[in-house]
Amino acid sequence: MIPNLAKLMFPAKDIVGVDIGSYSIKIVCFVQEKKQLKLKDWGCIPLAFKADTAPEEKKAIIAQEIKNYLKKKGIQARYAAASVSGNAVIVRYVKLPKLSPKELALTINVEAEPFIPFDIKDVSLTYHILGDITEDGQPKMETVLVAAKNEAVNDKIEIISGAGLDPLIIDVDSFALETLYEKLFPGPDGSAALLLNIGYKVTNLSIVAQGVTRVVRDIFIAGATFDKAIAKILKVDAASAEAAKKKKGLLVSDEDKEAAIGDFDKEAISVSKAAAGVLKDLYTEVSRSIDFYLSQGAEHSISKIYLSGGMSNLGNIAKFMAAEFRVPVEVANPFAFLGEQARNVPADVLPTLAVASGLALRRLKDWEE
Ligand SMILES: Nc1ncnc2c1ncn2[C@@H]1O[C@H](COP(=O)(O)OP(=O)(O)OP(=O)(O)O)[C@@H](O)[C@H]1O
Ligand SMILES: [Mg+2]
Fold first, then answer.
1. Whether this model's pTM surpasses 0.90
2. Which listed CATH number (1.20.58.1970, 3.40.190.10, 3.40.50.1980, 3.30.1490.300) goes with 88-149?
C-alpha cells in the first residue's frame, strides 16, 4: 500500500498538553480543522505508586502510561507541552534598570541572581519585559523572571521523550492556567481575577489584572493537606480520609449542618470541620498574596475566583470560598470555548483538565505566531 504522502509531509497539527501531577496525569489534545479548534481527546490517568518506587522507575511508568494512552486513542501527535510547578520553579515580578535587549541578555544572570533563591547554575532562566516605568527618576523595566530547576525540567523532558513525543515546550502550571483564562475571557475587562488550581501537593495561585499577570505563587496546601487533617480527626489512614473527603465534602448552609446533626452523621461533621480548617489556612496564604498585589498600587481589587484542580470537586468548596473571600467563585470548565463538543466530558473531570488544556492551547498559540 502506498503511504498517504500528504499525511507524511504535513502531519496533523495535533497538540498534546500533558500535565504530569503527583496524583494523576492529565492529557488534552486539540486539533485545528479549517481554523476550527476541535477537541480530539482528553485523558485523566490516576497514579498510584508503591511506597518504595524509585524516582527513575516512576518516570518510566509515567512515560509508559502516556504512551499507552496515545496508542489507545490513536493520537499520532509529534509535539507536546508539559509543565513544572511547586518547588521546581520560581516566578518573580521585578524592576530592573533600563537596558537594551542585548545588554540584558548578557547581564541577566547577574541582574536576576538577587531575586532567585536557587543557585543560578542549577536553573534555566527566562525573562519577559512587561514594560518601561520610571522609579525615583530612574528609567526601569518591569520584568518577569522565571527560574526553573534544570533537574525538574529535565525530568519532564525525559518523560515526554520516553512517551515518544517531542517535548517542545516546558511551561509553568500557572502560566498554562493564564493561557486558558485568556482564551476563555479575552481582553482587559477592568477587573482582576484570582486563579487557584488546587491539586494534590500544590495550589497554583495567580492574580491576573487587565490581561496581565501580577502575582504568581505556589502554596503547599492542597489535597494531601486535607487528607492529613481528616485522617487525624477521624483517626484513619490517608486513603480512608481521602474517601471520606470525596463522600462528605463541606457543610456550609445551616440546613446542611442541621441535617448532619439530626442524622448523627459524625463523619460528615468531622470531615467538614477538618476541611474548613485547612481552607482557612489556605485563605490566610492567599490573602497574603492579595495584600501584596494590592500594595503594588493595583487599580483593581479581586472580583472573581477561578477555581480548578481536582480539589474543586470537594463538595461545597465554591460556596465556602465565595463566603470566605466575598467574591464569586467559578469552577473551571477548560472546554467552555468549544461549545457542544465537550458535552460528554464528566463534570468532575473538567476542572482537573485546566492546566493540560492551557498547555495544549499554548502549542496552538505558537503555531499561529
Ligand atoms: N470528588 C472529589 N472530592 C474531593 N476531592 C477530590 C475529588 N476528586 C479529586 N479530589 C482531590 O483532588 C486532588 C488531586 O487533584 P489534581 O488531579 O489536580 O492533582 P495533581 O495535579 O495530580 O497534583 P499536583 O499538581 O499537586 O502535583 C486529590 O487530593 C484528590 O483527593
Ligand atoms: Mg496539578
1. yes
2. 3.30.1490.300
